[in-house]
């Protein structure tokens, strides 16, 4: 029992140390390191509880956890960097989400005109870059948003039509329709207040999510 407590305490301390180093590690490295630490703790507990050596269980758990923690693959990291380079200075935000998706947030000034679902010319290069190099199993989700001007009866279908326009464009670039999910959120998910013109413009946006399936059945 004492050995198990000591081993788990040491491993938890290591996990805390990794959290402190997060600012100097890439997103992929953080996922791998955190997965390894969590796996090591779980392995130590299981190994000790089943009569094995806690240290041996920790090593095995760390190896398994490193793989599981690295859900943000090199492929996804390469896509993130490519999108950042392609959209530099455009106002497009490219980021990794907490659940390991790549999110491309496109503001209204380069995506759609007011009350329109027609894709602006400046959005086309962004979508071209996004479509390039997509693996056949990669899944895409397009979500349209509006500001709070007008009623839900107007905003909801408009936001959906915008997402559908993006889907149609990606289909024309060879992305299978079966891999693209669309949704319209209307004005229900603002990223800024709707108190002034600048903030309303920020809320009129399209978000494109890219993810890798977690399993063959995903």
Structural summary, described in words:
The chain is of the alpha+beta class and 218 residues long. It has 2 domains: 2-69, no CATH class; 74-211, OmpA-like domain (60s Ribosomal Protein L30, Chain: A), CATH 3.30.1330. 50% of the residues lie in helices and 13% in strands. The protein has 7 helices and 5 strands. The protein has helices at residues 2-20, 27-49, 54-69, 74-87, 124-131, 152-172, 197-203, and strands at residues 93-96, 102-107, 139-144, 180-184, 205-211. It has a 5-stranded mixed beta sheet. Helix 1 (2-20) packs antiparallel against helix 2 (27-49), helix 2 (27-49) runs antiparallel to helix 3 and helix 4 runs antiparallel to helix 5. The longest helix is centred in the N-terminal third of the chain and has 23 residues, at 27-49. The two termini are 41 Å apart. Mean pLDDT is 77; it is low at 62-69.
How confident overall, as mean pLDDT? Answer: 77
Q: Could you say which structural class the secondary elements and strand pairing correspond to? A: alpha+beta
The number of E-state strands comes to 5
Distance between the termini: 41 Å
Number of helices, where a helix is a run of at least 4 consecutive DSSP H or I residues: 7
Low-confidence stretches: 62-69
Instruction: Describe the strand arrangement of the main beta sheet, using strand numbers.
Output: 1-2-5-3-4
Share in β-strands: 5-15%
CATH architecture of the largest domain: 2-Layer Sandwich
User: Would you state the CATH class of the largest domain?
Assistant: Alpha Beta
Question: Order of SSEs, N→C?
Answer: HHHHEEHEHEHE
State the major sheet.
Answer: 5 strands, mixed
Tell me the name of the CATH homologous superfamily of the largest domain.
Answer: OmpA-like domain
What's the structural domain tally? 2
The geometry reads as globular
Gyration radius (Cα, Å) is 22 Å
- CATH names the topology of the largest domain as 60s Ribosomal Protein L30, Chain: A
